[in-house]
Structures are given as structure tokens and as C-alpha cells.
Here is the input.
Amino acid sequence: GKSGYEHFMLKEIHEQPTALRQCLSGRLDRLSGDVTVEDIGDLETPVRVQLVACGTSYHAALYGAQRFREVGIPAQAFLASEYATAPPPVDESLVIGVTQSGETADTLSALRAAKGRGAETLAVTNVVGSTAARECDHVMYIRSGPEIGVAATKTFSSQLVSLSLLIESVAPGVDSERTRALVESLWRLAGNVQSVLDNSLDDIEELVDELSGSDAYFFIGRGYNAPVALEGALKFKEITYEHAEGFPAGELKHGPLALVTENTPVFALVTGDDAAARKTLGNIKEVQARGAPVVVVTDGVLEVERFADVVLRVPETDGLVGPLLVNVQLQLIAYEMAAHLNREIDKPRNLAKSVTVE
Ligand code: F6R
Here is the structure.
């Protein structure tokens, strides 16, 4: 059942601290900073990585590809449905299928194609014994527990964490200080997600009330917040049926800015104080100049008040983990807007939980 929640989606959003603890259980040694993923015991450090996925899982794959590149492993994410046009995997490539259900037709067929071309394959999945788990050479379970709501929530968070763990475990010791910071922030992650869940509902209800009826909703972010901007928009459009688009913030002035008016709220995602975060502030100024209402979702490391009509704060944490907290905030916003509009949240029109045709 829904354990007292009005929808499975809300229940699953609130299950994230537990899901993340399960995902991390036995894989993280806080003292030594070691990460061990027993599922993939014999997997060697890949020379090159391709990730294939659809929808929300593709956004996790984009995050994963960025993380691999950061530790020096060339990696690229592909939409599984477009994998036919990807460069063929070279020797010692690892092709990772990121798929919650393990049954998505496009992802299975991309994985089969990769295998056919001689690549080693790994399924990162939630469902034990799923087709992807059975067909791939290796499997890593994200351990979210069953997800009933059509809109993926807790499984996205667990995918981000699983990919992070995978990278630390197959490419250890690249930057020990970085690893230590990551391990520490993963250790605190469930608590930080809980605090996002505990704090925000009243603010969000008010915000949603104010913003509903807008022409469209935009989500912008850079670096690790770019896939989260895409995911924020996907979740929003999926369950509210309102027009929403996510962009890497730098792309705004290459087209989408033409759509920005006083009637298109912009959600800007800013964590840490790196170049990506600072440049996002510049992009916020551009949308402010067009009169768009700006909601900044931030850890508060940079001073954003004068850039924002509304600031939603998430706890300050490591740069790799902050975007995950931002995403939880965006899940709540999408949920509240859909509830406000009386949408059928757990089964949005035209959508299915598992897409088994190409
Ligand atoms: C969106 C959503 C879908 C899935 C996609 C892939 O909320 O759930 O976009 O992410 O259909 O599904 P899996 O991960 O099962 O391959």
C-alpha cells in the first residue's frame, strides 16, 4: 500500500533516505574511504565507457559519464534509442545499461548490439533477475526497493549513487582527497535528503500556488546540475502536463532564451562555488532581464539572494552530491504542482512504467 501517503510517488520520494542507505550498505567504508561493490567483483578498470539508457535513467547516465571523465576514463552517454549511430565500442570498452526495470526495449537492444560488437556489458538495475541483469556480463543492483509510481524518483537517486560507487570501485585512488570528500558526503547523504524532505513542503505549496498557470517552466544548470535540470523538467512535464524544458544553462542564449518572458518561471540550480555555479549566476541575470520569475535551488555556498525571487535551500555538501539534493527538491515541486492541478500522479496519461517496445 501507500503507507498513508496520497500517492506512491510521494511515498517513494520519502523512501529515498532508506533506499540510499540500502544502496550504500556494505559498500562504503567511512574510515578507510574504500568503496567496494561486491556485485561487480571481477570487473577491471575500463579503458573506455559507453552508457546507454532512456528517459530518467539517461539523465543518470549523463551524470555517470561526467563522473567517469572526471577520473580520467573517457566516457559518453547515449540515448539507447540512438545507440545505432554511436561509434562502435573499442577493445576493453565497458558498455553500461542504466535501467531501473531492466526491461526497457531500447536499452536491451543497445546492450545486445554492444555485446555483439564485442564489448563487456554491465547492467545497473533495480530488478533482480530482470532481462538486463540476466543478459549482461555483470550486474550492479541499485537496491531501491520496488518503485510503483510511473515517474521514477527514488531509483534516479539510487542510480546516481550507484554510478558514483561503481566509479570509485573500478577507478580507485585517482584523487584520494576527492574520494574522501565523496565518501563522507555519501555517508551523510540519507540524513541530508531527509532534511530536504522535512523542511520544504509549506514553502513549496505557496510557490506552486503562485507559479501555476504560467506559460512554461524552465530548468537550468551546469556541470553536474545540467542532467538534474533535464530531469527536473522531465518529472515536471510528466506529471503536471505543463510545458517544461531543461537546458544546460549555457545553451539558453543559443535559442531557448527567445521563449523567456514574465510568464515563464525559471528554476536555476546552483551548488558549490565552482566555475559552473558562477557561470550559472550569469545566465540567471539574462533571464531576470527578461522579467522571468527566478527560483534558485541552492546549497547557499554562493550568495544568490539578489538573483532570485525565491531561494530554496538544500544542505551544503560535496559538489558531486549537491545536485542529488537539488533533484529531491525538484521532485517535490513537480509533485506539489501536479497535486495542485489534480493530475493523476501515479499513472500519468499515455505513459507506462516499463516501455517494452522500441
Ligand atoms: C520517467 C521515467 C522514464 C524511465 C525510462 C527508462 O520518470 O520513469 O523516463 O526512466 O522509461 O526506464 P528504465 O530505467 O526502467 O529503463
Summary: Residues 54-57, 99-101, 104, 107, 151-152, 234, 238, 354-355 surround fructose -6-phosphate (CB under 6 Å).
